[in-house]
Amino acid sequence: MFRSGRNPWVRTLTVASLVAVSALGLSACQTKPDIRTQSAPGADLLKYQTFGFVEHPDTDKAGYTTLTTRYLKEAVTREMLARGYSASATPDLVVNFIAGSKDKVEGTTGPSVGVGYGRWYRGFGWGVGIGDRDIRTFTEGSLTIDVVDHARSELVWTGTAAGRLTKKVLQNPQPAIDKAVAAIFAKYPRQPVVAPSPPQ
Fold first, then answer.
1. Residues 90-106: pLDDT tens digits?
2. What is the distance between the alpha carbons of residues 106 and 121, in angstroms, rounded to a whole number?
3. Pairing with 185, which of 20, 52, 170, 195 sits 20 to 30 Å away (CA)?
4. What whole-number distance in Å separates Cα of residue 28 and Cα of residue 200?
């Protein structure tokens, strides 16, 4: 509890103060995307030499090439070329993209504390209060890259990046896509033979 000037001791909890504290906590915490990868049993990704893309990636459900697909193709091409693959119209491997999002809820069940300054029934002053729970909702985005044996139509490797979608990412997605693709390919079994070229 706080005492300010002539105001008496108060036990005031405001929604605004809790929101402000929560927002500060979120802005101070930057988390990296969660990366998960899996190789098909017995898959030898070193034997393949060329790559391309599926004719209709999952990110083109509308029937035309989206900007997301274009950014993904550019980023994956950089990573595959760096690993010694060559682009081909009749490739050994073809790549598909799957993007999605879902709303998630997070919170704490323990006590939460909020502090704020504002008007109360006797005037203005500081207020502090304790709440039972702190619940927030956010949108999580995911990107999956599938690498498929073209001749056999079999998945040989897949990688997924999942993380919180922010307003900044939604307004300018290309840098986030470049970083997500690089993070996924950092766990690809065939490592770069040259450094990937920087995004244009």
1. 999 999 999 887 776 66
2. 33
3. 170
4. 30
115: tokens are: 């502090």
Q: What are phi and psi of 135, to 5 degrees?
A: -110, 135
Q: What is the Cα 177 distance to its own chain's centre?
A: 9
3-class DSSP state for residue 46? Answer: coil
CA distance 147 to 45: 10
- Return the exposure string of 43-67: e unless at least 16 CB atoms fall within 10 Å of the residue's CB, then b: bebeebebbbbeeebebbeeeeebe
Does the domain at 15-185 match CATH 3.30.160.670? Answer given as yes
Beta strands in 70-179 (DSSP E): 86-87, 93-108, 112-120, 123-131, 134-149, 154-164
Would you list the domain boundaries of the chain? 15-185
| Residue that has been written with the tokens 């030898």 in this structure | 44
How does pLDDT run across 124-162, given as a tens digit for each residue?
A: 556 555 655 667 776 778 899 999 999 999 999 999 998
